[in-house]
Amino acid sequence: MEIFTSYIIGLLPLVPVITGVLISLLRIVVNNRLLFNTLYVVSTIVSLCMGLIVFYRVFIQGLYGVYCLGGWFPPIGICLVTDKLSTIMVLTATVVYLIVSIYAIWYTRHMANYVYFYIVALMHEAGLLGVFLTSDIFNLYVFIELAGLTAYSLILFYHHRLRSLLASARYAFAGALYTGLFLLAIVVLYATTGTLFMAELLVKIKGVELLSFDTLLLAEPVYLIPILVIGLWTAFLISALYPNHFWLPDAHSEAPSPASAILSGLTVNAGVYIVIRLFYTIFYGSPYIGSLEYLLNIVILLGIINIVYGSFKMAIEDDVKRILAYSTILNIGFVYMGIGIGTSLGISASLLHLFNHSIGKMLAFLSLGVIVRKYRTRNIYALEGLGRNHPITMAILIVSIFHLIGVPPFGGFFSKLLLFQAFIDVGGYAYALMVIIGTALSIYGYMRLIELLWHHPIHYRSVPRESLPIVVIVAYILSLIIILLLGIFSQSIIPLFNDVGEQVVHRSLEYVEAFSRILGKI
Amino acid sequence: MNDLLLNILITSLITNTFIGIYGIVFKPNIIKKIISLTIFNDSICVLIILHGYLGPGSIAPIHILPFNAGNRELLLSYSVDPLPQAIVLTAIVIGLAFTVFLSITALRIYEVSGSLNLHYLLKSEIVETVEPEVEVMEE
Question: Is residue A127 part of a domain?
Answer without folding.
Answer: no
